[in-house]
Specification:
It is globular, with a radius of gyration of 17 Å. About 35% of the residues are buried. Strand 9 (about 110-120) and strand 10 form a beta hairpin. It contains 6 helices and 13 strands. It is about 30% helix and about 35% strand. The two termini are about 20 Å apart. Helix 1 runs parallel beside helix 6 (about 220-230). With about 240 residues, the chain is α+β, with helices and mostly antiparallel strands. It binds thymidine-5'-phosphate (TMP) and aspartic acid. The site of aspartic acid has 8 residues, from strand 4. Aspartic acid binds next to strand 4.
């Protein structure tokens, strides 16, 4: 096989150059990190589950009209995507209070947030992904005003679509993070959607089914991801 060019290695994925200059290959690793890379572990099969999970969600969103970078799955751990010029802003939307919102504002975990809260964070591990607002994004030219409008609208749209999808699987979509980029100047959803970047609670027991199991040492991390995938009907084979 031809040697592939590794372009970037992140905490949970490796990015390789694709066969076409406009394409990239995302390789999903078993590595799991939390707290901006402070806590790291290998969780067997997580890469395969997240690859399958991400493909299922990205295809679902594309069919619903959301512009995404997803092109096709490429084996059990890899996916081919369009090469985006990434915007260094993480868009987080919250339907219930959890995580950093509770710590920052003293809100009780689980409080329903109506309307949902949308926040922006700067993607920068060494600064611990600080909370930012539109004014920072504008002044530092991280994205244009119209891109911020579009990222806001698409994040809300994805929230509506996925809250409903997960509700049908008896899961509450508590919050999630999206990243966007530009393809030929057009905004597209990039990165991944998996239980590594969202919070999901069982709708009856309120049990955590996402990366909080790893962050809080609750155990059964991959089992929970697998259960979420099973409930959604995610096909596991390549
Ligand atoms: P937070 O409560 O830590 O701010 O995270 C909110 C949601 O966004 C949670 O589902 C985790 C996700 N997230 C990431 O996956 N990566 C990040 O760097 C950030 C800031 C949030
Ligand atoms: N900040 C995210 C988390 O705590 C991602 C990471 O740091 O690895 O899950």
């Amino acid at each position: 096989m031809k040697e592939r060019k590794k372009l970037y290695e992140g905490k949970a994925k490796i990015v390789y150059a694709g066969e076409h200059p406009d394409e990239l290959i995302l390789h999903f690793k078993d590595d799991t990190s939390a707290f901006d890379g402070e806590k790291v572990a290998q969780l067997e099969h997580k890469g395969e589950i997240n690859n399958a999970f991400n493909a299922y969600i990205m295809e679902y969103l594309s069919k619903a009209g959301v512009p995404t970078h997803f092109l096709r799955r490429h084996g059990p751990r890899e996916t081919v995507v369009q090469r985006l010029d990434m915007i260094p802003v993480e868009c987080v939307i919250r339907n219930r209070a959890a995580g950093s919102l509770c710590r920052r504002l003293g809100i009780a975990e689980g409080q329903v947030l109506e309307p949902p809260i949308l926040e922006f964070f700067l993607k920068n591990d060494s600064l611990h992904d600080p909370l930012i607002n539109r004014s920072h994004i504008r002044t530092f030219h991280w994205a244009s005003d119209s891109e911020v409008e579009a990222m806001t609208r698409w994040t809300q749209e994805v929230n509506g679509l996925l809250s409903e999808l997960f509700a049908r699987a008896q899961l509450i979509l508590v919050d999630f993070k999206l990243e966007f980029g530009r393809f030929q100047g057009q905004l597209r959803l990039g990165d991944e959607f998996s239980p590594d970047g969202c919070r999901l609670w069982d709708a009856s027991s309120m049990e955590k089914m996402d990366k909080d199991r790893f962050r809080r040492d609750l155990g059964g991390v991959v089992e929970a991801y697998g259960e979420v995938a099973r409930r959604l009907g995610v096909p596991m084979l390549p």
